[in-house]
Fructose-bisphosphate aldolase
Amino acid sequence: MLVPLKPVLDAARKGGYAQGAFNVNAVCQAKAVIEAHETLRSAAILQGADLANAFMGGRADFANGTVKDKIAGAKNIGDAVKKYGEDSPIPVVLHLDHGRDMESVKAAIAGGYTSVMIDGSSLPFEENIELTREVVKYAHPRGVSVEGELGVLAGVEDHVFAASSTYTNPLSAVDFVRKTKVDALAISYGTMHGPSKGKDVKLRREIPIAVRECLAHEGLDCALVSHGSSTVPRYIVDEINELGGNIQNAYGISLTELKAAIPAGINKINIDTDIRLAVTRNMRELFAKRPELQKSESIGGVYKLLLEHPENPDPRAFLPPVFD
Ligand code: G3H
Ligand code: 13P
Ligand code: NA
Ligand code: ZN
């Protein structure tokens, strides 16, 4: 069944565990993510980043999506999640990742998203509060949960690039949660988006601990979210490079660090890069086996070539690589 984010994270908080939240960058990934969670008998959180919505709406260049592309993409992924998730025995959430403005939020909700993130973390504090409140006012009456963000993660984050991080201030977090009434809060405590997070990153666990304690002291409650949490498996990076790729300086967050963040108060762990790496490896493997496919310059062209040859692997199993 399709549900908002809040009940899923409430259960995680009560049970003292965290839910993985997995980015889908193409519609065909919805089925895979839902089936994997059904096997594990776990609730599933699928998330489409704001610009991924544009891509899933048919826009070939990820970066320049218009609102029209986003509306089409939200509907495409929304329909797929309904198709595979509505009759599923597990709770399924479709969550907008790093929504940039009201238009993105409205497009996502119109397409069937049950939860939205509004990322005002690059705005001045008061403006972030104002934008997030506006989103909560729109989303909550529609039964849609809201995630906000406070603090800046270093690295590439959809539409935002930050050279260095600013950790979340626990007292500002209290103020933010009280004024916005968000259901979940993304914090900055040492994680980072993308495949180059730095060697042996140690997470600042005292930050979620302090945020939790400060919230509890004020009688407030809100689930905490860890973005930029991919583990960047060495063997996948090696396989990509053996297949002609050139990914340097690839380091993720270790499983040990992620596991230790859960008792510190983290209830949602976002993963995008790890899946993109697997997709990149699969694309390179396919091109190595069928070099004729490389003649096509666009992803759409590759799909077309694959479809023209019925003996080829199902093109929907392959997704566009984004970096590499
Ligand atoms: O938040 C948007 C995307 O998840 C950023 O992904 O850092 O894996 O490129 P990336
Ligand atoms: P990674 O780049 O570590 O996968 O982070 C994903 C994320 O935070 C999506 O919002
Ligand atoms: Na941010
Ligand atoms: Zn993120």
The two ends are 36 Å apart (CA to CA). Residues 314-324 have pLDDT under 50 and may be disordered. The longest helix spans residues 67-85.
